[in-house]
Amino acid sequence: MTSADSTIYRAPDCPIKRHLVALHLQSAMAKFSNGCVIVVALICFLAMLSRTANGQLSSTFYSSTCPNLQSIVRSAMTQAVNREKRIGASILRLFFHDCFVNGCDGSILLDDTSSFTGEKTAGPNNNSVRGFDVIDTVKTNVESACPSTVSCADILALAARDGVVLLGGPTWTVLLGRRDATTASLSTANSDLPSPASSLSQLISAFSNKGLNARDLTALSGGHTIGQSRCVNFRAHIYNDANIDSAFATSRQANCPSASGSGDDNLAPLDLQTPVVFDNDYYKNLVVRKGLLHSDQELFNNGSQDSLVRQYSNNNAAFSNDFTAAMIKMGNISPLTGSSGQIRVNCRKVNG
């Protein structure tokens, strides 16, 4: 109140009048206080609506509802990676294959049922994507601490980051607040996931359709610095392509017969040198024509990405910076937020 306002409520000499004035003051202050509470509540509600409407994710989404979430995920991922180094790459790929099919919504985790066909049997996923048991374990641990609070989609996003970090790669802030899909799309998985036989133009187009540019494509492809691939995915490249080092092709042919259907599931490291260390050797291999997949070598084949591949091969920090930025960008593809979707209690099935 101003000094002029204060004179209006100056307590008079009469005790009765002073009491009446005090009651008037208390009533006025109560109304003012209640009004503030209402206004603050309204502001918070509008902010929540705005975030929901815009589909925005936040790094602090579970700070009050599940404050130990990230340490729970990291602990389970540490145990999983200690058991098998390859699992870090598998979880990273699982996240990529989730986000590229109707957004990062955990749909790839859904099992088929008698009345429902999910994404696991799609061509790019069948007998290929793995790590579902690890996500199950993480989810069980999270549910014990924070029941029906954290989505499977968010758990997958955190686990993918942790797998990279545990193999020596960079870290990044994972934005959270996704909800889980109640359905999946076999047809979209078959059409939208890039093939290992893709040309550069096909790769650029597939990523562009998801809001990712050519630089994002080249940076995210660096995820192939860890993990392995099946013979069926690289057979054509090592037997038919000309843009491959001959000695490298011969070495890979030893464990991948030319006949289709023979040795299809035999594995080879995507990064010849350090397959369980997240570094920039993948790009060094491309420069000397030792990319395992046709789609890998397309990034360095007298095309638009050659200079960026050279840059990454010479500068691991540049690769790490672009990779983390692209991972955050990819993680924001069409998330379900607000009242959309649900928080699945079991990542493999929709809540009953």
Automatic annotation (TrEMBL):
Binding residues annotated for substrate, in chain numbering: P194
Residue positions binding Ca(2+) 1: D98, V101, G103, D105, S107, E119
Ligand binding (Ca(2+) 2): T225, D271, T274, D279
EC number: 1.11.1.7
Protein name stated in the entry: Peroxidase 1
Species for this entry: Zingiber officinale (Ginger)
Keyword Acetylation listed: no
Positions of transmembrane segments: 32-49
GO annotation (BP), single: hydrogen peroxide catabolic process
UniProt keyword Glycoprotein, yes or no: yes
Residues that coordinate or bind heme b: H224
InterPro entries registered for this protein in UniProt: Haem_peroxidase (IPR002016), Peroxidase_pln (IPR000823), Peroxidases_AS (IPR019794), Peroxidases_heam-ligand_BS (IPR019793), Secretory_peroxidase (IPR033905)
PANTHER family named in the record: PEROXIDASE, PEROXIDASE 72-RELATED
Cofactor: Ca(2+); heme b
Active site: H97
Reaction equations catalysed: 2 a phenolic donor + H2O2 = 2 a phenolic radical donor + 2 H2O
